């Protein structure tokens, strides 16, 4: 049986020193929890804002999905890629639409996030969750409405 690239990256990670692994976990926790000072200090010291975990979620994606607007903006300003897709084919802008983090959606859009990337993409997510404002803002068309589940009523 052939190893996947995911298996190979797991093998490489298992050879890292425990302190390095603990540091990475601390940074991913900082992204999820919105610890802007800690994470941006680490990025300013050389940590990549595009560092990904074992599921392909970058620090930026975790911060965006959790709704941490200022941290998201800080990571974007420091080179975070707003179009990075995780291992499940999900985009951070679609995740922010799904979670209702509109300020994060606008921060990602301002830095060039493509609303057509990912599955479902941000346009489809906006339609599914009744976010007609975002659907229109993203340039959604009637065709975009055909390949998604029925939308939820606006909240």
UniProtKB/TrEMBL annotation:
SMART domains tied to this protein: ANK (SM00248)
Source taxon at top rank: Eukaryota
Matches recorded under InterPro entries: Ankyrin_rpt, Ankyrin_rpt-contain_sf
ANK repeat boundaries on the chain: 55-87
Keywords noted in UniProt: ANK repeat, Repeat
Leader sequence segment: none
PANTHER family associated with the record: ANKYRIN REPEAT DOMAIN-CONTAINING PROTEIN 39, ANKYRIN REPEAT DOMAIN-CONTAINING PROTEIN 39-RELATED
Protein name (database record): Ankyrin repeat-containing domain protein
Organism: Crepidotus variabilis
């Amino acid at each position: 049986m052939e190893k996947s690239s995911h298996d190979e990256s797991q093998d490489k990670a298992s050879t890292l020193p425990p302190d390095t692994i603990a540091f990475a976990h601390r940074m991913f926790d900082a992204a999820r929890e919105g610890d802007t000072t800690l994470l941006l200090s680490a990025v300013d010291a050389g940590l990549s804002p595009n560092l990904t975990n074992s599921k392909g979620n970058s620090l930026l994606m975790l911060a965006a999905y959790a709704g941490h607007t200022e941290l998201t903006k800080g990571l974007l300003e420091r080179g975070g890629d707003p179009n990075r897709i995780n291992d499940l084919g999900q985009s951070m802008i679609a995740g922010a639409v799904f979670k209702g983090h509109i300020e994060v959606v606008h921060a990602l859009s301002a830095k060039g996030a493509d609303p057509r990337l990912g599955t479902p993409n941000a346009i489809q997510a906006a339609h599914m969750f009744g976010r007609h404002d975002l659907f229109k803002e993203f340039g959604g068309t009637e065709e975009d409405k055909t390949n998604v589940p029925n939308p939820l009523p606006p909240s």
